[in-house]
Amino acid sequence: MAEETQSKWEGKATTELKFVKPDQIWPFLEDFCSIHNWMPTVDTCYQVEGVKCQPGLIRYCASTVPSSENPDQTASVVNWANEKLITIDPINHCFSYEVLENNIGINSYISTIKLLPIDGGGGCLMEWSFACDPIQGWRLEDLASYIDSALQFMGKKMEDAVHHTA
């Protein structure tokens, strides 16, 4: 679900993980610099500064994509962003981060990812909410769709990882 306003874009995506509990998924999310292991479009992610699992940690994330300026798609460009961990709560299984410097045109982006137990004790919901300034050349629906598909992919991959290590 996404809501478009003149000053800010806001949205939220959720995915249900039917066979794992928040405690089983949290270690994957708590490692803020491992997003490249879970998100389909991120090629690399590493710590730039700060202390692991502590607010203030900054990570560098990058994706290699085909160049839109080259019609035969043999050239590529690297989209990158530095992202800062704002809060992290291992008890409630959530964290928030903001996008800092980047070459993608993202401004004032803040996101929260949280795990919520499903009543009855089986499974959990993973929720990704965001707020940012409008991104030139994008529609809110494009960003919301990207986040939703990335979250679905991440959730499935994390759930599969739990089952393969169990």
Class by SSE composition: alpha+beta
Overall mean pLDDT score?
Answer: 91
Percentage of residues in DSSP E strands: 35-45%
Query: What does the main sheet amount to?
Result: 8 strands, antiparallel
Global shape: globular
Which range best describes the helical content: under 10%, 10-25%, 25-40%, 40-55%, 55-70% or over 70%?
A: 10-25%
The strand line-up of the biggest sheet is: 1-2-8-7-6-5-4-3
Radius of gyration from the alpha-carbon trace, in angstroms: 16 Å
Question: Which consecutive residue ranges, at least 5 long each, have pLDDT under 50?
Answer: none
Order of helices and strands: EEHEEEEEEH
Q: How many angstroms separate the termini?
A: 34 Å
- Contiguous helical run count: 2
Number of separate strands: 8
In summary, what is this structure?
By secondary structure, this protein is α+β, with helices and mostly antiparallel strands. The protein has helices spanning 22-30, 140-165, and strands spanning 2-4, 9-17, 44-49, 58-66, 76-89, 94-102, 110-117, 124-132.
Give an account of the 3D structure.
This protein has an 8-stranded antiparallel sheet with strand order 1-2-8-7-6-5-4-3. The model has no long low-confidence stretch (mean pLDDT 91). A hairpin with a 6-residue loop joins strand 7 and strand 8. The chain has 2 helices and 8 strands. By secondary structure, it is α+β, with helices and mostly antiparallel strands. The termini are far apart.
